[in-house]
Amino acid sequence: LSFTSWRNMRILTWNINGVRATKAPLKQVLDSLDADIICLQETKVTRDQLDEASAIVEGYSSYFSFSKVRSGYSGVATYCKDGVTPIRAEEGLTGLLANQKEGDIIGCYGDQTMFTEDELCSLDKEGRAVLTQHTIRNPDGEERLLAVINVYCPRADPEKEERKDFKLRFYRLLQTRAQALLKAGSHVIVLGDVNTSHRPIDHCDPEDVEYFSENPGRKWLDQFLFDPHQAQDSNNSTDSPISHSNHSTNPTNQSDAAANQLDTSLDTSLQAESTSEKEPGGFFVDTFRFFHPTQRSAFTCWSTVTGARQTNYGTRIDYIFADRDLLSHFKDCTIMPEVEGSDHCPVRGELTCTILPASKFPALCSKHMPEFAGKQQKLSAFFIKVKKGAAGEECSSQDSIYSSQGSDAPSQQSSSQPVEYSSESEGSGVMSITKQGQDQGRASVKRSASEPVGRSVKKQKTEPAKTGKQGTLLSFFGMKSKTEKKRMFDTPDNTPQNLGVGGAKDTDHATGVNSTSVQCCDRNLDNNFGDSNSQGGKEDKNTETKPKAAQAAFWKTVLKGPPPPPPCKGHKEACVLRTVKKQGPNFGKQFYVCARPQGHSSNPEARCDHFQWVSRGKDK
Questions:
Q1: Which residues of 54-72 are buried (b: 16+ CB within 10 A; e: fewer)?
Q2: I want to staple 110 with a disulfide (CB 3.0 to 4.6 A). Which of 180, 356, 537, 563 is the partner?
């Protein structure tokens, strides 16, 4: 690799909120992100739902982890440009999902004795992590391994206590794997949706700054991350803008109760290494805060329901964490709020390193999946058998019927004739087939319905039968067309005597219905069901629309619909109607709130505090 072609490495993370829901083609989306390694979270696709448009993207290789719990849930994917192909790739953090050959496994799982086997399976079956390993070269020419851990950490549902514990256990498993890779001599980057805002500066409206850091997820980040600015300020005995938050980043200063609650003790060897260094904090650095320690309103996630992105009322929960040694090769880390399409925005980091591509794709690459590699048979292969003819032409199983059944080969006919099916008699079961050949036409061949057919041929639309026996649309509604009524009265079986009425001359005396009245009835039927372009048809349509309009006006007076929404107190603008979807005593109830997007209380353009329940009684 010549230094003239040197290009800085770019790595990006983005919670895409559905990889199949992008408005533009996926390749166009990936190209616009301008990164070598693109890590996506919340792909919301399972193995059976993965389509070729998402799995095979020109210029990229992809590596997926799917949820085994339910469809349309969780999932992560890493897309690598062809010039940065990883040497290995692996699904999951535990190693239980790695079914590749030993040479394709990244390994280094750390001490997992604190987890039960069922717990390890549970933590990995939601499709929340995929790892890729690359060979990188720094400007000095030194080559090192780099492990990229793409994670989508669980969200702690406040209504479900078990999910809170699940989130903390996943944090601990992630830390165990990351530090094991670091101990093995590889550089490590952990990036993705961590689902926890670390400090008050990373939150749009922290409720209580004094107790903000007491959140278990934030305590885990305190001991997982190392803050170079705070460490430098501690040595210089000066204040730092970041250190104003009331928390400590030294895990050794945490109380025993907090340590027991988090259950995130480090490996003994790593603890000893950290103690020997005599520096506070963990082994990884928040790269964005390293370059932008005091930047406020730098958020990566907003609520789409409340329109909070318009007022930038969000949180920063998407990160790029790098180990301390690799931090010196980082050039910058930026947030990209201008990229829309999800409730999150991307975060991109740039390094002064270059990636050496592997010679082949790892086993986990989607290009090796049977349905995309051309190894899996399609459904049509079970119904169409292709053979080579004597002249080298491909013949289908339909053509081979003639030879297999000993029938005469069809004579040649003009190849311009389409496929036709005609019934010679209603009960004969004889079918006439005219099939267009590839080079020359084939003659019509008659086969009895009792004979086996090689394969079904899709019927094409044919002209109506000219026998006069084909029914009309009116026959389905109990009405007869003029032709059918004439045939009905002309046929011997349908004479007026057989129908129970007198002759044509005796009609006035027997039934009171004469031929003139029948003709009038025919004319009325023609007006109602005949040509829509006739004048009579237009008149009937006009007369039909009048009662419909009257009926619509009547129902509008009876059913007035919902009342207009009330104005909000703050802006005197029409409110919007919302419904309580949270389980509880108010589930299903409706209420009115301000229609403006959610924002800080100090923002006059944001939503006011108007709230009004919808009356269960009749609205006046």
A1: bbbbeebbbbbbbbeeeee
A2: 180
Q: What are the structure tokens assigned to 132, written together? A: 């890729």
Q: Which of 344, 399, 592, 610 is catalytic?
A: 344
Residue 331 has a CB neighbour count (10 Å cut-off) of: 14
Under 8 Å between Cβ of 197 and 220 = no
Q: How far apart are CA 230 and CA 279, in angstroms?
A: 11
Alpha helices in 87-202 (DSSP H): 117-124, 161-183
pLDDT tens across 166-201, in order?
999 999 999 999 999 999 999 999 999 999 999 999
Amino acid at 185: G
pTM attached to this predicted model: 0.66
| Coil/strand/helix, residue 309 | helix
Read off the pLDDT of residues 547-562 as tens digits, 9 standing for 90 and up.
788 888 888 777 877 7
pLDDT score at 235: 60
DSSP class per residue in 62-89: EEEE--SS-TTS--EEEEEEGGG--SEE
Is 229 annotated in the active site?
no
Closest to 40 in 3D by CA, of 15, 8, 71: 15
Cα–Cα distance, 576 to 592 (Å, whole number) = 6
Active site residue 592: no
